[in-house]
Amino acid sequence: MDQFGIGHLSHRSARTLSGGEAQRTSLARAFAVRPEILLLDEPFASLDPPSRESLIEDLERILRQTRTTTILATHDRLEALRLSDRIAVMNGGKILQIGTPGEVMNHPVDEFVASFVGAETVLTGRVIKRNGGTFVVSTSGKEIEAVGEAHLGEAVILCIRPENVTLSIHSSKEATSARNVFLGKIVKITSLGLYQKVQLHCGFPLVAYVTHHSLENLSLREGKEVAASFKATAIHVVRRKEK
């Protein structure tokens, strides 16, 4: 109980506990028997943000201290990244990919995994050029350059994380080292707390994250035309299976 900070609740009735206190009590009860394996199913889903953050912090510490093998089911990728040594992404009861957080987050094996781990832009296209270490993909009539090797005519999927997309009011490629620069119109801006999610149409859909400062500094608003850029190295390429 002391590990979870609930020693002062030892004489309280369970019926008087808050949601956070009840969840801490449940975890303390589970750890009290020193389990070989702990199974957790969305353990933070019903908690308010402060209680959730506090409990995640304590659980992370206790898991590292006790080295208890734990299987955690969650829909929150940040929880998975913070608490796990290995991540398995499932869809329809099947494991699509399993690996370290870095492997799964940065090298998704297909479109579903890419979307789940935060690659907000997922585009399909075909390789039309090869440039020695890079190749060009045609998608929705636009050409996108990516790092790697691919065959001419090969069908590929391009995955771009929103934090790797930069917005500016200048469209010249000379103003940036990025190989991919496209003019686009802002379709929607959504506040995500610490940053803003900007959805663009550049001939293809593209998503970027910007800070509140950048939003104001660039006077970004829905309907405005801006330049969006991303590096060829920022694209994760998935080989598409032909049907």
Describe the structure.
It is elongated and about 70 Å long. The mean pLDDT is 89. The chain has helices spanning 19-32, 49-66, 77-83, 101-106, 111-116, 212-217; strands spanning 37-41, 69-73, 87-91, 94-99, 121-130, 134-139, 142-147, 155-160, 166-168, 180-191, 195-201, 205-211, 225-230, 235-239. The termini are far apart. It is 23% helix and 37% strand. It has a five-stranded antiparallel beta sheet with strand order 7-6-5-8-14. It has a five-stranded antiparallel beta sheet with strand order 9-13-10-11-12. The longest helix is centred in the N-terminal third of the chain and has 18 residues, at 49-66. The protein is of the alpha+beta class and 243 residues long. The relative contact order is 0.10.
Q: Which class of secondary structure composition applies to the elements?
A: alpha+beta
Share of helix, binned: 10-25%
Order of helices and strands: HEHEHEEHHEEEEEEEEHEE
Radius of gyration: 23 Å
Strand count: 14
Describe the secondary structure blueprint for this structure.
Layout: H1 19-32, E1 37-41, H2 49-66, E2 69-73, H3 77-83, E3 87-91, E4 94-99, H4 101-106, H5 111-116, E5 121-130, E6 134-139, E7 142-147, E8 155-160, E9 166-168, E10 180-191, E11 195-201, E12 205-211, H6 212-217, E13 225-230, E14 235-239
Parallel strand pairs: 1-2
Antiparallel strand pairs: 3-4, 5-6, 5-8, 6-7, 8-14, 9-13, 10-11, 10-13, 11-12
